[in-house]
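Consider one such protein record:
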Amino acid sequence: MFTQINLRGGFPSIQDYDTQEAAQRYGIDATLNKRTDHWNISAGASYQRNDKTGRREGDVFIINQAENKQTFLPSDGERSFDDISYNGRFNVEFTPNKSDSYSLGFYAGKHTVDRLADIAYYDNNAVTPIGSENRVYTFQYFNHNLRTRRGDFALGSFDYSHVFSNESKISTSLLYEYTFLGGPTVNENLGIIDRSVLYQQEYNTNDNPLKGYRATIDYQWKPFSFGVLETGYQYRDLDHTGEFVYERDGVLVPEFSSDISLQRTLHSGYAQLTGTKGKWDYAGGTRIEAMNRKYSEDLKTEAPEETYTLNFVKLFPSASLQYGLSKDSNLKAAYSKRVERTTTLKMNSFAEREHSEVFEQGDNQLKPEFIDLLELGYVKKFDGNTTFNATAYYRQVNNVINRVNTLAYQANGAVLDSVLNRVYSNVGKSNALGLEIGAQLQPTKKWSTYLGANVYSYAIDGLFTFEHRDGITRDYEVATEATIFSMNLNSTYFFWENASLQFSFNYLSQINTAQGEDSEFYTPNLAFKKSFFKGKLNAIVQWQNMDMGLLKSNEQRITTFKPGEFYTTTNYRYEVDMISLNLSYTFNGNKNKSKFIKSEFGEKEF
C-alpha cells in the first residue's frame, strides 16, 4: 500500500499591487495506491487555490484618417487571477496473467479562473489634426472587466493489452470525455471617482459543451534482426457546440452573438522502425492523417448560417540517426513533421470585450500549423558526471498563428476610434535557424549545475486577411525578422544527505511578433528542500519570481502597431516574491505505482 498526502500553503503577498482582495494560495492532494499480484488500484483527490495578483499598464492611440483625429487611451490598474480547481480520480488495473492487462480509469473535476482587470483610463483624449496638441476632448473613466472561465470535466477510459508468445504485443484504448466550458465576461465603464455612474455595460456568455472520443490500436511486431517495428491506428472525434450572447446595456447585439458548432474527425495510421547496428542507432517512420473539419456559425442576425470546411490527407514523416564516435560521444541527426491544431475559441469570430479598448475574437477559417524541424546534434560525456551537448536546428512553420490587431470599422464604414479588433489569425510562414547548447556540470560532490542557452534567427513573412463589419475584407502584410536569445540555469547544492538548495533562472530576450515585439522576460526562483523521518516527510520552501524591488522579474511589455492606423503597448506586471511551503508525507516506504488518466480535449480548450 502506498499513501501520500501533499499540502501547500502560500504566505501573504509581499509586493503590493493595489488589488481589491489579497491572493490566496493553498492546496491539498492525496494519492492512494494498492498493489497485489493481479491488481493495481489507485485513487486520488485534489483541491488547489492558486491566485495571482498584478497590474496592467497600457498606452494606446488610434488614428481616424477620415476625421483627421487621433485618440489616446493611457491606462493603469489591477489585473489579477482567482484560480480554483479540484478533482477526483480513480484507476483500476487487472493483470490476470503475464500476457493480459486490463485498465479502467475515471476522472472528474472543476476549474474556475476569474481574471479581474479594474483599469483606470485616466487621460482618454483626442486631438485634431493628427499629431497636434489641439485636444478635442478629455475624458476619464474606470473600466471594470471580469472574465470568468470555468470548466467541468468528466472522462473515462478503458485499455487492454496482450503479449503474444512470439513477444509481439497489441494494445487498445478507448476514451470518452465530456467538458462544459463557460463564462461569462462583464465589461463596465464607470465613473472614475463615483463608481455608481454607469456609462456603458456589456455582458457576454460563452457556454460551450464538448464531447470528445478517442480510440487507438497499436501493434508491436515480434523483434526482427534489424529492429522493432510498431504500427497503429487512432481515431479522434471532437463535437463542440456553443451559444454566445452579447448584450450592451441589456440589449442583444446580434452581430456579436452567435451559435457555433465544430465537428472535427481525425483518422491516422503510423508505422515506425527502431533499431541498433554497431555504432548506429536509427529510427524512422511516418504517420498519415486524414482530417475532416466542419465549422458552422449562425449569427443572431438575418444573415444565413455560414459553414466552413477544411479537409486534408497528409503524411508526417520522422527519422533520426545517431552514430557513436566513441563510448563518450555521439552525433545525431533528426527530422520530423508535425501538426499543431487550433482550439475552437480561436476560430469563433464572436467578439468578446476583453478590455475597454479591445474586441477579441477568432478566425472562422483558421488553419492548423504545420511544423518541419531539422536537427543536427553532438553529445559528449566527461568524467565527474559532466556532459555537453550542442544542437543546430532549422524550424519552419506554415500557417503560423499570431494574435494581431486591426482598426474596428462600423457597418457604415466609420472607424471606431476607441476600440481595436484583436484576432487570432494565420499570418504566413515563420523560419527559425538556431543553435542550442547545454552543459551538465558537477564542480563538487555536493554541487551540480545545468546551464543551457539558445540563440536563433526568427522571421515571419506573409499576410493575414480580416473581414470587417463594414463588409470589406482587408489584407495586412507581415514581414519581420530578429535574433532571439534564451537561457536557463538550474543549480543544486546538497548541504547534507537530506537537505538541498536549488536556484533556477530562466531568461527570454525580446522577440518579434507579426505586428511588433514582446519585451524580455525572466524569472529567478529559489527552493530549499529538507526531508525528515527517513524520507517520509519532505518540506520545500519556494521563493518564486524573486525580485525584492530591485529587478523586473515576471514582467513583460507587449507592443503592436501599424503605421498610420494604431499603436498599442501593454506592460504586464505579474506577481513577484511569492513564497510558499509544500509538505509531502508518505505513510510507508512503498513505491508509487499509481496510474491516472488526463483530459484529452477539454483542458486544451480551457
In short: The chain has a mean pLDDT of 95. The chain is about 0% helix and 75% strand.
